[in-house]
Amino acid sequence: MIKPMLLFCTAMLLGGAAAAAPSDYPTRPIRLVVNFPPAGPLDLEARAIAQHAGQLLGQTVVVENRSGASGNIGAQSVAQAAADGYTLLMTLDTLMTVNRFIFKDLERDVTARLEPVSLAGSFGMALAVRPELGVASLDEFLSYARSHPISYASAGYGSPGNLAFEKLRLAVGIPAAHVPYRGNAPAVNALLGDQIQAAFLATPGILPHVKAGKLQALAVSGGQRDADLPEVPTVAQSGVAGLKNYDVAFGFLVMAPKGTPEPIVRIWEKTLAQVYAMPEFQRSMASLGIRQPYAGQAQAREWVRKESEGWKAVIEQAGIKAQ
After folding, report:
1. Is 163 exposed, middle or buried (CB count within 10 Å of its CB: 0-12, 13-18, 19+)?
2. Count of H helices and E strands in the chain?
3. pTM
4. Could you report the per-residue pLDDT of 122-134, keeping only the tens digit for each?
5. CATH of domain 125-238
C-alpha cells in the first residue's frame, strides 16, 4: 500500500495507547451506526470493519443503519449517545465538511458533539455523459455546455456529485441546472435514460456502463487517475484554464461522541490501523473504489478542517441550500 498508510499503521501498532486504557474495555457489544442506507460503499466498509475489529477486540460490533436527512439523523443518534466507546459512527465526511454549513443548528446539535477517530479511506468521482452527446473530452463538454442548455444529476443537495459539479461550474463559468435525485442509483438511471446530460458519479456505479459503451467518462475528479479508469485523465490534466488545481475527493470517517475517553479512542485507532493493514480488507476496499488515505485521529481532524474550508466557499458561491 501507499507509504503514508504504512507509516500510520506502524505507528499505531508500535506506539500503543497514550494512556492506560480501561482494562475491561470492551465488555459488551459495540454499536457502529451507519448514517446511510445498506449496500452502499459506506455500509459495506462499515461491515468489513465491524467483522475484523470485532475479532480483534473480542466483542461483537453491530452495524446499525440509520439513514435520512443527508446523514444527519444517524449522526444525531450518535451525538446523543453516551461517550463511553460503545456507540460509534461511520459517515461520509460531508457530515462535517458540508452539512454544517447548509443545515440550520446542525453544528450546535450534532457536529460539535462528535469527534473524528479515524479517516477510513477516500473516493473520487468521474464526470460521465452519454456517447450520443458527441463529446470526447472535458474541453469538448465545456464547449458544448456554453452553447446548449445542460442539466446534471446528483444524489441530492450538498451531495458529492452536486459539490463536484458546482466546483467545476464555478471554475469555468458554465451554466448548468442541478437535478437532485434520491441517491446515486436514480442519478445513474437518469443519465442513462437521457433525462439529464451529465453527472459526477462514483466510479463503481458507472464502471459497468462505461465498459458496455453506454456511458463515457470524460475526467476523474481526484488528483490522480482512477485505477479502474486508467485511460481517463483527471480534471486537472484536461488543460482547461481554471482547472489545473481541481482536486476533489471525499472521505469516510469513523467518529465518536465528543468526550469519549482518550484511552478508548486510542484503542480504536490501534484496532483500525490493524484492520486497514489487512490485505483482504485492502482488496475488498479497492473493489469498492475506496482509496487512500487511511489514517488516525490527527489526520482525520486535519482532513475535516481543510475540506471544510474549501467546501464552505463553494457552498456560498453556488448558493447550495438544504431542501
Report:
1. buried
2. 13, 11
3. 0.90
4. 999 999 999 999 9
5. 3.40.190.10
